[in-house]
Design goal:
Helix content: 25-40%
Strand order of the largest sheet: 2-1-3-4
Structural class: alpha+beta
Low-confidence stretches: 128-149
Order of helices and strands: EHEEEHEHEEEH
Number of strands: 8
Number of helices: 4
Largest sheet: 4 strands, mixed
Radius of gyration: 15 Å
Shape: globular
Strand content: 25-35%
């Protein structure tokens, strides 16, 4: 049986995480349950590991890795980045940025379910990246006005 390990890295302060990471976690849990069922006939097992980060590791917060590779790398979503996170800022008492996800030209504060499904499917069946935001000259084709969801 093939094993896929999804790691969800997020900042945790005394059992509390930011809203953005909390939403990613809820999406992950639902998608993992659906994927476990859908991929069982293909003899693919999925495991979700939650990795709690300290304040010193906050730059990694809201990161998702599949079999050790960042979900953004798997789908070639090179335009993803970080934006100010009011919820993390409240937890820490200072302005803090958190990772965002760019998927199909849109930027999201928490992982879109379809992005996760596409990345797991790509890893499960060793497909090439499904989406790309790179132009032939290597430049990023992200929109200059990014809409956060």
């Amino acid at each position: 049986m093939k094993k896929i390990i999804i790691e969800w890295l997020h900042y945790d302060k005394e059992g509390t995480t930011c809203t953005r990471c909390g939403n990613s976690g809820a999406t992950l849990r639902k998608a993992v349950e659906d994927l476990k069922f859908a991929l069982k006939p293909a003899k693919i097992d999925i495991e979700l590991k939650e990795i709690l980060l300290s304040e010193e590791q906050i730059a990694l917060s809201n990161t998702i890795r599949i079999n050790g590779r960042d979900i953004k790398e798997i789908l070639d979503e090179s335009c993803s980045g970080q934006t100010p996170c009011p919820s993390c800022s409240d937890l820490r008492g200072q302005e803090t940025c958190c990772n965002t996800f760019t998927f199909q030209g849109e930027t999201y504060e928490s992982v879109p379910e379809q992005m996760l499904i596409d990345a797991v499917t790509a890893v499960a069946f060793a497909e090439a990246p499904i989406h790309t935001n790179r132009l032939p000259n290597g430049a990023c084709s992200c929109r200059s006005a990014i809409r956060l969801k």
